[in-house]
Amino acid sequence: MAKAIALVATESGWKYLQQLCKHWSHKLDVELGERSGIVRFSEAVATMSADDEALTVEVEAASDEVLERMKGVMSSHLDRFAFREAPLPFDWQGA
């Protein structure tokens, strides 16, 4: 499994996390908890958590290729919901 984590500085992380989970819940298995969410894609799992200063996004994928694609999917979708702040500063780190 390939894995990457990004800490995205934003005061609206919880709002964006909820929007993403709601958006994907129509087609994917999604769990929304208190200040956290999990989205299960066919070849990857995205785990998100938010506090008052940042949104943490962790992606675990079946391969390096899927991981790279999913990092782009997460970034582009978050930027769409965060259009007032976009582009958000994603600093992906290997895990």
Task: Summarize the topology.
Elements: E1 2-9, H1 13-24, E2 29-33, E3 36-40, E4 44-50, E5 54-61, H2 64-81, E6 93-94
Can I get a quick summary?
The chain is α+β, with helices and mostly antiparallel strands.
| Total beta strand runs | 6
Side by side, the strands of the main sheet go 2-3-4-5-1-6
Estimated structural class = alpha+beta
- Name the average pLDDT: 95
> Total domains, how many?
1
N-to-C SSE string, H for helix and E for strand: EHEEEEHE
Helical stretch tally: 2
- Rg from alpha-carbon coordinates: 12 Å
Amino- and carboxy-terminal Cα gap: 10 Å
What would CATH call the class? Alpha Beta
* Level-2 CATH architecture: 2-Layer Sandwich
**Cα shape:** globular
Could you say what the CATH topology is called?
A: TATA-Binding Protein
Question: Helical percent range?
Answer: 25-40%
Q: Mind describing the biggest β-sheet?
A: 6 strands, antiparallel
Low-confidence stretches: none
The amount of beta strand, in percent, is 35-45%
The CATH fourth-level homologous superfamily: Alpha-D-phosphohexomutase, C-terminal domain
